[in-house]
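Forum: Protein Structure Q&A
Topic: Joint prediction for protein chains with partners

I've read a bunch of threads here and the consensus seems to be that you should model interacting components together rather than docking separate models afterwards. I'd like to see that in practice. Below is the full input, 1584 residues plus whatever partners are listed. Could one of the regulars post the assembled result?
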Amino acid sequence: MKNFKLYIAVAALSSGMALTSCGDSFLEPEPTTQGAAGAAGDPLNINSGLAASYQILGFDSYANGSYESSVYIGDIQSDDLWKGGGDANDGMNGMNLAVSMFNTSGNLTLNGTWNIYTSGITRVNSALGLVETATTDNPAEIALIKKYKAEGLFLRAYYLYMLWRSFGSVPFQETLFDPPYVCRQLSPDEVYAQIIKDVDGSIENFTDAEMNTNDGTNNGRASLAAAYMLKARVVMYQKDQARYQEAAKGLAAIIKSGKFTLVSDYASMWLQEGEFGSESIFEANLVPGSKDWGTAWNSGGTNLPSYISPNGLGGDPGYEGGWGFGPVRPETYEMFESGDQRRDASIRDLRGDATGGNVGDVNKTPWGSSYTMRFQDTGFFLGKYAARTGYHKPTGTGDLNWSNNLRIFRYAETLLAYAELTLTTGDVDGVSGADCLNQVRDRAFGDKNHHVALTLENIQKENHLEFVGEGHRYYDVVRWGITNVLHVDNVPGLNISRDWKETNKYVAIPQAEIDATKGTEFELKQNPGY
Amino acid sequence: MMLLALMVTMTSWAQGISGTVFDDQGEAVIGASIVEKSNPQNGTITDFDGKFTINVKEGTTIIVSYIGYVTKEVKAASNMTITLKEDAQTLQDVVVIGYGVQKKSVVTAAISKVNGDDLNLTKPSRIEDALKGKVSGVQITQSSGQPNSDSKVRIRGIGSVNSSDPLYIVDGMPVGGGINYLNPTDIESVEILKDAASAAIYGSRAANGVVLVTTKSGKAGKTSVNYDFSYGWQNPWKKKAVLNAKEYMTIMNEAQVNDGNAPRYSADFINNYNGPDTDWQDETFNYNAPIMQHQLSINGGNEKATYFLSVGYFKQEGIVGGNYGRSNYERLSARSNSTYTVFEDTNRNFLNKLKVGVNIGYTRDTSTGIETNSEYGSILGSAISFSPLIAPYATDAEAAEILASHPNAVTKDGRVFSLPPSGFQELTNPLAQLNRPSAGKNNSDKIVGSFYAELDILPGLKFRSTYGIDLAFWGYDGYGYEDYLGTMTHTDQSWVQSEMNRGLRWQTENYLTYSKTFAEVHNLNIVLGQSASRYESRNLGGRDSQLFDHNPIHAHIDSAIAPETESSVWGGNGGVTNTSLASYFGRIDYNYAERYMVQFTMRRDGSSHFGPNHKWGTFPSFSLGWNVWNEPYMQKVKPSWWDVLKFRFSWGQNGNESIPNFTYRALMNGGQNYYFGGSYTVNPDPTQPGVEAGKMVYGTSPARAANPDIKWETSTQTDLGVDMRFLNSRLSFGFDYYFKKTTDMLFELNVPTYIGQSKPYGNLGTMENWGLEFEIGWKDNIKDFSYWFNANASYAKNKLVELGNASGEQNYESAGASGVGDYVHAKNGEVWPYFYGYKTNGLFQNQQEVDSYVNAQGEKMQPSAQPGDVRFVDYNGDGKINDEDRTKIGKGMPDWTYGFSFGAEWKGFDLSMAWQGTIGNDVFDFAQRGDVPAMNRPSWIMDRWHGEGTSNKIPRMTSANPNGNWKSSDIYIHDGSYLRLKNAQLGYTLPAKFTRLASIQRLRIYVAAENLLTITGYEGFDPELASGGYTTLGVDKGIYPQARTITVGANVTF
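Posted by a regular:
Agreed with the consensus. Here's the joint model:
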């Protein structure tokens, strides 16, 4: 009996050993939240790749943990805005200040812009890689994939443009990275050539029917019009007169298509109801989501309204407070003629009893609203993307999740850019440049009594008036070469003085990126002057 | 080792000598062996009352022995009473090593042992805390003073930039998430395997050392019941000196004036000020926070079965927020350890015994916690930076105004808490924070059990099979109602959140051990076995909004009434189906007459963390030892007062596999979605969802770049040690030198970010640590007075040899908003990590000094500086002050950690003290936030520069700060060395003759103090700082300090 028990015990122990002997299959777990890379392309996964590529558009203001909204960053370099914020160094530890004073360095530069848009290019490259591997005989699918390719090329050109205008020389390749994970840095002219190549490829793959995609289901997707717009903007920034004719032709095609019209109530364009309106050619569709301070690369809305709204705002129905960055200079407010509806839509006048006083003081407006003055306060704040009540959910991190879409290309720009090009090319395809300029003025004043002549000076002025707070001004000033307007003498209390040199066209390339390529075949070179 | 194995023939019971055996506590010794010296065949054992009868004549020499007691020879006499003395030496002479035990005299590796009794002296809430200062080579830093806060345990330096946490093995079972679930009083001993040779048996997980915990087991004999109780009062041991109202106004004015602005407060106002002058720390601290525990254990058994049962209850209120239920800890634990001899046949010597056992522990704990070390509005962080001009509560007039514009302002008993003045950013009234209508509670249930069976196959040959589980359930439940604390801190909609997690690790091991002595001098011990383990987890959580009323009873996830689209759920299995480890291991131990010792260990591990190219790794080690005085030819030279001289040498390799999953596979990241078609419209009516006219398209993009050749980190360690004992083993001394080199350190490759996907991991880095460890002990008694003294000291030097990137540098901590910039950094050739910033050279006393601070070209180095600003050193000598001048300015890791303790006993009184300290560590005192100019400052700011010659250290007040005075520099660095009286205790054991009357064997009462005294030059709350990741070691952002605790308690044994 005793022995019998013993044998059972021995048998049990040995079976325990047998059960646990194991091979490598025991050691091969599967990921539960990620798919494997390297699938063949089909419309579904190409569209997924494109969605991730479009998502980059929503990263403008906070992804990477950096406050680098293209609107704000563009305009603090211009003659429209001061830096603002809590104190001189507030805003990425002095980065905002360095940018606004043309004083960037390898360690204090637009890291976010660099990281966000290079990621965008990689995402597009992945999606376009899927386009290359797609094999389908279905004509509907072939057409769809062609459209996806056009969108992908547009996005790549747009992201490259965002890098190019800030950094000039950008490392770029059309494929995903393999070891040793570096690629050649293109010169600014080479980047320009690549953008033109991609945007031309995009135009080629779009059909005429895709001129305007604001059809309700495709809102937010790139369109033929967006590609023409990008091409014109890039060609004009490069001052590549050889392409002015093509560029003007593209814009003329948009105008002649009749798919876009100016919105008569300028202010309404910036409201929720105005999103994807008749004037909208391309905008980033921002949807409040799970973006939070620690999860900057999550999907979500924008931070811009919080960033540029007055601090601790109270008693101002319809508006919420923010962080007080980007106060508008009084000169910008004052440049508008009376009757120009764009002034009050672009700039909020909150001047009150203490404007220009001490940081930390409370400023009360005549109608009883109040806010706390911060660095470089002027009493004027940006209006288009102002923090409006009800524009973010009551839950989640509201400051990072505003629902305001970012308007990237508007039809007004089509008209003004076309008008400007015709100064060189003359009217193209029967579209009158002078008429385009005056369409914009007619809308601004709500009458036809404010026409001006088609001159470069008038076009420059009109662009300035039309796009306050949209991140255009600085790049326009640079391409027009009127950079003397960027000069700022040291004004007491503002703690800013600056001058623009040709080398300031580009900011410094992040030093960490240069360090990471040291000793490789493709060492990144810092921009001249840094 | 069991006495019961020594079965003796029993002869006549009828006549002979009878007697009783007691121990030195006066308790009967059950199962003691009594044999006739001249005829060992004649013997017996004591019964349950300690009584025996042996058939010998009076005057015959008999030998009385029992394990753990000094064997005694006595002359037989009728009705004799024999008292056996406990042999402390024997108890400590065995150390637990992986898969076995070893006599300390033949140990060749570097293993430190702490007995449970030493740990429990302090009644710690966590074992790591009690280990602090007890062993050399182990640096333990408590994260913060929050109840149940964890500790950073580093064995022999920082082994890696990745996880440097040791492997914890409890009764053979590896446990995740630390060992805080253990009831410290259940612990028999803790062994720390420090060198590669001892840890190698745990292979790919052992690179950072192994902590082996053995829980108590039952002892055959009379049932013993123990009850412990203690109750304590905790208080902060210091406040941080900050400005009072008048000082605050002076300093704020000075900043205004220095920046060219009008002063904020007039001189009249300051002089006649009689408004609030709030000491926010007084308002915030929870004085006399209670801490209490009850412990009950039952222990007993017979020759066939033994058991140890215990239940424990522990409850602690935190000294910050504990009185508001925000920083509390409660633990209930139960344990059952038992062994059974299922089968035993003494008539043969093969397959003759089968023993089974189970050690199982269950712990339930609940905790609440607050942010412990943050510049962004933690409670204590706010208390030291909030304006003293603000009263905790608003005046009636202010209250009406606050409620009018912010109906959700926080109130208590109808009174409204003051709001922060403008410009305080995230910083809010700390009392309002404590009174927010919100709560969040963590819960955890954990069962760790191991079941084993051990079969004696042949003499010396045993087979053991074990199956263990670590099953943990943990979760969180929280809610919050609408509130308003400030412009940046408010809840606009009530919310509720719940999370549930489950993790299961199982492990099965089978191994043979063979232990045999040949020809009396050749001692051989072999272990050979196999192990497999797997971990799986899953979790589910949800968050919803709009609770249907304001009654916290209803604050559950099913009580939220928001539309479906407003709720969120998450969950999964942590991104991986499981993680697994399969292993084979073996060890050969041999010693020749305890003179020469040699040990070989080898483990081969296959890990799911690695791809097919490097799935398996082999980790070898060997060690050698020489007991010099055991040599016969040494006997002539051996001094009589020198008992032991042992040299040890070991070499080995261990691995570190605690790296992310799937670094070897190219995967796609999902969830990068975008909406097409229609814009999103937020509905301002919170009861209705927003309108999503568009359609979400699921987005995917390439995830982290893959590296199929990824493998484990390897640490190679050499150890040289000496053990000595003198004066009948009263004095002991130990010394170790080690050199540890970690290679193939896993690192995110520093490829450019422009690759647009997460950077790949690679085996690149190299880290070195070397150190010295000293342990010394003395133990003696003079008649009734017994006393002991132990001390240890460890020196550790860490060097990051190679980061593996081109620049050889990496930044870890940055504070952008506060104007500090990068402040924790690493660089090849330096200690990892270190504090980073500018070196300074005093302050500019006047404009002339600013003007004359020029480079070789005569250009001003700091053109925007003004008198009173910091003069930064042009460290790289390039004639410019810029980011390139930043360098190492300090480090959080100490050079020396040490501890010493002593104790004494006299006629029932006992006294003990344990001190513990560090030397050579710095604190980075994060006392400034550039973006909150109005924040309160530490009192030392009164010594700022305010005119030529007033200070050469603390710069002038300025908010504009054109010189960047408060960017990271050595003015933030303070010496963090400290010496702390960790524990002091005075106890009294009542004489047994009195307590017996109440059926109590032993009754001890005591009073104890923890952190009674801290000697440090640092002026902050606590020089011991390790909250957050390892890279924030020594960074003080207003740390939640450890409490000073006074405890009274009693131990009762029935």
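Chain A touches chain B through 121 residues (CB under 8 Å).
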